[in-house]
Structures are given as C-alpha cells and as structure tokens.
Amino acid sequence: MSKTYFTHRFGGWRTAEAFRWTNPDGSEGGIVAKTASLPEKLMLPADCVVWPDAEITDGASIGGRASIGYGASIG
C-alpha cells in the first residue's frame, strides 16, 4: 500500500513530511515522520506521534497518546 505524505507540525514548531501509520490489522495508526523507522508489525495507537529520525525496534510496545521525540530510540 502506498503512503500519502503531508506536512505535519511536530510539537507545534518542527515541520516535517509525515504519514498516517496503518496497523497490521488494517486499523488507522498514529502520525509518523517520513524519516522515522518502525517495524511493519508495530501496532501504533491512532493518537500517537513519532517524530523525525526516531527509531522503534521489534518488541516495543507503544501506548496511547505517546509522543516519540526527535531522534529517540525505543525498543
């Protein structure tokens, strides 16, 4: 499935290209920066935001309303 990119304002000040994550079950996930790295099987709640250059590795569990900051590494 192709991603539709848009400009998102992360934290109200940092703009970057982003897309809406699609969870493995087909449900809508959170907003993810184009330069972030996430495993395809990650379930990401719709109210989460993953900032530019953040990395989430296999085995990570992300809860609702999480904001994974710029350059963060989770996993």
Q: What's this, in brief?
A:
The termini are far apart. Helices cover 0% and strands 37% of the residues.
Describe the structure.
The protein has no helices and seven strands. It has strands at residues 6-10, 14-22, 28-33, 49-50, 55-56, 67-68, 73-74. The protein starts with 5 loop residues before the first strand and ends with a strand. The protein is an all-beta fold and 75 residues long. 0% of the residues lie in helices and 37% in strands.
- DSSP summary, beta strand count: 7
* Mean of all residue-level pLDDT scores: 96
The end-to-end span amounts to 25 Å
Q: What's the helical proportion of residues? A: under 10%
Report the principal-axis shape: globular
- The low-confidence runs, each spanning 5 or more residues with pLDDT under 50, are none
Beta-sheet strand percentage?
Answer: 35-45%
Task: Indicate the structural class.
Answer: mainly beta
Q: Any idea what the radius of gyration is? A: 11 Å
What summary fits the major beta sheet? Answer: 5 strands, mixed
Strand order, main sheet: write it out: 1-2-3-4-6
* Number of helical segments with 4 or more residues: 0
| SSE ordering | EEEEEEE
